[in-house]
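The record is given unchanged here:
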Amino acid sequence: MSEPTATDLPPALRTALDRFTEDDGAAILVALDFDGVLAPLVDDPMASRMAPAPRAAVDRLGATTSARARLAFVSGRDLEDLAARAVPPAGSYVVGSHGAQTGHVTADGELESVPLELTPDQAATLEALYGALDAAAAGREGVWVQRKPSAGVLHTRTAGPQDTTAAVAEADAAAARLGLDAMHGKEVVEIAVLHASKGEALTRLRSVVAHETGIENVRVLYAGDDTTDEKAFAALGAGDVTIKVGPGDTVAAHRVPDGDAVAAVLLRVADRLG
């Protein structure tokens, strides 16, 4: 089966992409979630890799010479893990931990990041959170805990329904006990000691692009697949393009089925910029 092209995309999305890339003096930021958008969801997050069609499209977009365009990767993954999996083109912005971590890929391909620092109270709360999530996972097959610099993540993708329900309930209880918010995604519960959201991350990135390009008007395209991406969609407005990847309720204006369709979107943008 051949990969989707721009003509396979919904007409309304094609029109939106043409308007998005119109050369009217505006700068543009193409921001992308990783898992479920560029890379298929897998049981082992450490085994995740970008699919071939999105990989080629990302590299093509990253190689465009337009001075008014920027590329960003925005994920719940830890920043260094995201950079290792996504291998962003030089010049890309990299945002990890739902916005708590930020970085930039240099012309030499090196990741320059802003150090993440916790207060002593936050560090103590994080250790308590780790312990509570470990207890929620203990004795439950397929349930495991991932430690991030400012959060703990309970994974249940390979767990049975009873163990999943019980572990998630314990994670939610731990979050409430510690005064933290629990973010529910696809078979994960993430609890962070720092407040962050992808919506706030995109708002900051828009300002960064405006500063770097000297262009006040910055349009943003964002593609995401999970419930945590809804805040990103909600933070964007007129002139921006929001794309939900896959099924599920969404506030995004457009929807595509999978990563190959995302690749078609990116190639359309690259062609228009080129």
Remarks:
- The radius of gyration is 19 Å.
- The CA atoms of residues 53 and 260 lie 6 Å apart.
- The longest helix spans residues 120-137.
- Residues 6-116+197-273 form a domain with the Rossmann fold fold (CATH 3.40.50.1000).
